[in-house]
Amino acid sequence: MDKIWQLYKPEKDLAAVISQELRISPFIAQILINRGIKTASEADAFLNPRLAQLRDPMEIPNISAAAKRVILAKERGDKVVVFGDYDVDGVTGTAIMVHTLKFLGLDVSYYIPHRYGEGYGLSLDSVKKIAESGAGLIITVDCGIASVAEIEAANNLDLDVIVTDHHNLPKELPRAYAVVNPKQIAGEHPSKYLSGAGVAFKFAWALLRTAGIKDSSFLTSLLDLTALGTFSDVVPLTGENRILAVGGLNLINEKRRPGIRLLAEEAALNGRISANQIYFCLAPRINAAGRLEHASKSVELMLSDDPLQAREMARELNRINVRRQSIGSSIKEEVFSAIDESYIEANKLIILAGENWHPGVIGIVASQVVDAFSRPTVLIGINDGVGRGSARSIYGLSIYEVLDTCRDLFLDFGGHEGAAGFEVALENIPELKRRLKEKVEASVKLEALAPRINVECEIEPAQITLSLIKEIERIAPFGEGNAAPIFLIRNLSLADHRGVGKDGKHLKAWFSRDGIDLETIGFNLGSLAKRLDYDRTYDIIFRLESNEFNGFESAQLSLIDFKEAKR
Description:
Oligomer: single chain
Distance between the termini: 22 Å
CATH topology of the domain at 56-213: inorganic pyrophosphatase (n-terminal core)
Structural class: alpha/beta
CATH class of the domain at 56-213: Alpha Beta
Strand order of the largest sheet: 3-2-4-5-6
CATH architecture of the domain at 56-213: Alpha-Beta Complex
Number of helices: 20
Radius of gyration: 25 Å
Largest sheet: 5 strands, parallel
Number of strands: 18
C-alpha cells in the first residue's frame, strides 16, 4: 500500500511575520506553525526553552495536600514506600522520588513489582507486604490512578496512599489520600501532558517548597532523570516536556550522575549524547532489566553514587540487554514468518499467539510489526499456562479502547492509546481473537491503514544549505509531537541509483533539477530500487541532515519515500 504524504497547509503570511520578528528562516517558522505555534513569542519560547517557563507545580490539583502529608510523615517518623512502574518512566520517576525524600530526611524505600509475578501497578499482595513492613505511607509513581480496590485495601490497613500518575483518568478514581495527576487540571494546561517522571519532578518541586527549601540546585539535579523518563515515554516533546527534555539532556551531557555516565560508556556513547541515542541505546538498556529480570537493577543504578558499584550494574544491564536482543530476534523471525501478503490482505488487525514468546519482549516486536505492515498488532506469549499480550496501534486508533471492549476476558489489563498490555486465560484466547478482529474490521476503514507521513513544506533544491540544517537543529530534540522535519521537492530527474550496504539493503540515488544535483541515501529502501526509471521524473520526501567526511561538512538528504511526479 502506497504511503500517504500529508503536506501541512502553508501559512506564508504568518511564517513571514514570525521569520522577520525572530530573524529565522521562513521554513523554520512554517515548521513551528505546524507544531501549533501562532505567535512570535510562542516561537521564541519553543526555540529557547528555559526552566523559568515551567508552570507552578501547585497548579496541579491536590499536590499541596500531598506534599503536606509527606512533611507530616517526616515529623511522625513514618516509613514511606515509593511504588513505581518497571519501565524507564517508572524507574526514573521512582529514583526522583527516592532521591527527594532522602534529601528531605525521610525514612524511604521503594517497591517495583515483578512484571510477571505481580504485573503492572499496585496489587492486593503488594499492599499487604508494604503494610506488614511497617510503612505508613505509599507514594505511587507512574501508576495507581486505576487502583481502586488496592487503595481501598490500603485504607483498611491504615496505610495512606498518595497517587502520582499521568495516565488517563478512569471513570472511578481511587479513594487515595491525594491523587496527583495533571490530567485533572480543568481546560488546556501545559502540565497535562507530563510523563510519570515529569509528574514526579513537579511533586519533588512542591515538596521542597512545602519544606521551605529555596535552594534550586537539588531540584535541577533531577533533570537528567526527568529527561530520561520524558524521552522514553509516549508524551509530546512540546511545552513543558520540551523544557524538561532540553534541560535534562544538557545535564546528561555534563555526566554528573555515575549511573547514567557509566551506562552511556557501556553503550559506547563517547561523544555528546543525543535524543536518538537515548531512544535506541540508553532506554533499551534501562528497560531490559524489567523486561527479563527485575527493574530494581535499573533503579539501583539511578540511585548509586558509587562509581565502582555503578560500573558493575551498568555492565549487568548491558548483558541483560544483549540477551533481550537475542530473544527479540528469535521471536521477530517467528512472527514475521507467519505474516504473508495474503494474511495482510485478509486482516486489518494482526493478532498472533506463540508458545514461550517472552512477554517482556513481544511489545518491541509488536512495534516492529506495526512499522512494517501498518496494522494494529496484538502479540500473545503463552507461558506457564497464561497468555500475556502486548498491543501496539496505528495513528488514529486507540488500542486501549479496542481492548477495553474485551475487558471481561482479561485477568489483568492496562495501557493507553498507542500501547497496552494484558493477561488472558488460555481458554479465552480464541474468543479474544474473534472479538478483536470483529471490532477492528467494523471500526477501521481500509484507507486508515495506509502509512501516513507528515511533510512540513515544499522546498527548492537551491534552498538546501548547511545554514538551514543548523537552524533545524534548534527545533531538536525530536520525538513524539515534534518529529524531525520532512521536506518535499517536486519534479526531479533521476541521474543515477544503486543499492549499497549488505545485499543492497540501502538505496543511494542521485536526482537533479535546475542544474543542481542532489545526492540522497534511503536507509532500508534498497528493495525500492526496481521502482526507479530514468525516463520518469520524481517527487521525493526526505530529512535534511549534515554529513561530515574527511573534515568537510555537507548537506545530506535522508530519503524517506519517492513517487512518480504528476505531469
